[in-house]
Amino acid sequence: MRVYLDHGHRLVARRWRGPAGEIDLVMEKDGEVIFVEVKCSSTHARAAEALTKRQIDRLLRSAEDCLGTFPLGSATPMRFDVALIDGQGRFDVIVNALSA
Fold first, then answer.
1. Which PANTHER family would you find in this protein's record (predicted)?
2. Which residue, among 37, 28, 90, 35, has the nearest Cα to 63 in the 3D structure?
């Protein structure tokens, strides 16, 4: 989360929970909402592998629920990032990780 705050993002919610599930972090900057899934493992590669299709589907449904709380609803600019944390505590952020 610190990397986002250091770059001017605002924390909207930590562990946001809705009917479809939980979103680890919801951040905002300049009107764009960033949904962040945090994955931890011994290496960044293993952390990335831990993000399953089922989790992605849950994240997308949860984000849709969360967007309903914003004034523009589903028209709110958004993206999905994945924050990877390895066993040494080092992190790497994959920006816009779920883009086509």
1. UPF0102 PROTEIN YRAN
2. 35
Q: Top-level CATH class of 2-94?
A: alpha beta
pTM over 0.85: yes
pLDDT at 72 over 70: yes
- For the chain, the structural domain boundaries read 2-94
Contact 78, 71 (CB under 8 A): no
Q: Which residues of 61-96 are buried (b: 16+ CB within 10 A; e: fewer)?
A: ebbeebbeebeeeeebebbbbbbbebeeeebeebee
Give the C-alpha separation, 84 to 57, whole Å. 19
